[in-house]
Amino acid sequence: MDGPLTDVRVLELGSLIAGPFCGHVLADFGADVIKVEDPSTGDPMRHWSQDRPGGTSLSFPIIARNKKSVTCDLRTEEGQRILRDLALSSDVLVENFRPGTLERWGLGFDELQRINPRLILVRVTGYGQDGPYAQRAGYGSIGEAMGGIRAVTGEPDRPSSRVGVSLGDSLAGTFSALGTVMALHARTRTGRGQVVDTAIYESVLALMESLLPEWAIAGRRRERTGSILPKIAPSNTYPTADGAEILIGANQDTVFARLCALMGVPGLADDERYATHTARGERQQELDEYIGLWTRAFDSADLLDKLHEAGVPAGRVYQAEDMLADPHFAARQAIVRLMHPDLGEFPMQNVVPRMGHTPGAVRTVGPRLGEHNREVYQGLLNVDEDQYEQWRAQRVV
């Protein structure tokens, strides 16, 4: 069974996360993603990781999975000529350089369109391709701050916090992949490519629900609220006898009634202090404390069994070891295991979303630097051995 993008060739010039995450999504669904890297250093992501057994990144094999790696020095005229040749037979080019970089290399959209009018140029940056901030250096963390997510993340009595992953970069990559597919669809009608311009801060802003009208119309500023959403109760993490955190979401009237019955206090659901969504929201803290006293009497597994049987949404706050041992993860193959040439069995998250007839798949871990040079340059561009060896001698590849 083929993925839906098996007829699409993508050139990925980006590094780190924002651009490569776009390529990662497209490659998962069958696109032939050729990652173009600097011959001397490669993508810095190859060297970034909290834990690097034997100097091997644990992040790069995931974000570069299903891709091919070629090396090419785009700062040289010969390297730029090679990229033009690659662009001629490609559908998409993804980059996350600062605006103007491709233009300085003679590889701007106008030039790429001259070479291949059907080429789609996907540009991922901190602030977008235009506007007064376009030329600023923009990392994902800055985009998260500007887009609003940092201001509402963390405890109210502490400085703003970050989410434990590179959320802004990954969001920008995801929206870029969506934009790529839309541009491919539009190309079937127009026959022409276009620019997909994704800003990290705008990708974060897209998640911010009613943040703007809450301030502009209602005069209310969202603040950091820790593990709760204000006035949404009960919906929080609660303690257990064995020290685990269990999240319970019982803020809907009917679900709250089921929780009260399970706790042995069915009348609480009809008590005017808690009978409505608004009333519970006004007494959020006292309600959470009351429920916490009850949950502390049970081990987490016993508590979850009771909650699930009663039809109350609940779940453990998972760590990696919980995911690897969970039967639901296993049944849906949410985690796949591939063999890494240096690290052996390598677990990673599977493809999302699932598709019934043209599913994506994880076929390979991230490649070695330049692993596919000969395959691409000699196979796709029909470069002879002498030319290839000359490029190597000149350190163009």
TrEMBL record:
Keyword Transmembrane helix part of the UniProt annotation: no
Listed InterPro entries: CoA-transferase_III_domain, CoA-Trfase_fam_III, CoA-Trfase_III_dom3_sf, CoA-Trfase_III_dom_1_sf
Pfam name, any one: CoA_transf_3
Extent of the signal sequence: none
Record keywords: Transferase
Protein name: CoA transferase
SUPFAM superfamilies: CoA-transferase family III (CaiB/BaiF) (SSF89796)
Gene Ontology terms, MF aspect: CoA-transferase activity
